[in-house]
Amino acid sequence: MTDPYSEIALQLPNDVEIGGALITMVEPNPGHEHAYNRWYEDDHFYSGAMHGPWTFAGRRWVAPRALRDRRAAVENSAVQPPDAGCYISLYWITRGHEEDNERWSFLAMGEALMPHGRGFTERTHVYTAFHRYRFGLVRDTGPMKPHLALDADYKGVLVEVVDAPTADGLGALERWLQEELLPRHLATSAAGMVLAFTPVPFTQGRIEQPGTPAVAPPEGVGSRLCLLWFLEQDPGGLTDDKLRAHHGELAASDLGTLAFSGPFVPTAVGTDRYVDELR
Asked: What is the pLDDT at residue 154?
């Protein structure tokens, strides 16, 4: 019998580089906010994600009612209803092991956690998908790097979803964002970096827990980018103009359409801070 730990330890590549991300935005059902926060922080953050091989960083963020009220109005929101998604969790996956990590995640949830009562039925996934890392831009010269984002002391994250008109247009949208729009606005923004990801189809089927709506297959595969702006200031203290300075140029282009833009702040680990501010 082989030793799986020896095999994993020697499996390459093992560079500290982002290959993908699990990005999961969830809405706890009304009346179950406290129980959801405790379940996720005390159990699921670790057992459902951080325990897994090739997950090397993770962080939870929250959008109280006051922040959700400041989401940009968009025509066809990637989040339904547009003010749903009180919590978002971000996890970095090692480059070269994206599908290995997804396979572990589905097995762990479907066979090791849910059958033993370690799921949570009173919640709805509003934007959940595995993603592939496309590029990262860091504002200032120095030691900060994209893979450090979830462990750094950022005060907030602005999550944005941008859709190309067609799958054929994704390359042009990505190049324009990476080479022109984002560097120009990052230089004078409240963000220390911005990272771009694209969603991919689930390769392991769908996680279905009795009593809970199944996680929907990701939309926009092949034509969508998810941008994560890591903010050096609390977004609650930033004006909408500061958070949305790049939206006008995006709207004026024929390269992409904004489908979501909403700020979050880090959860206060070991507390239930913000739970009473969600509604």
From this structure: 99
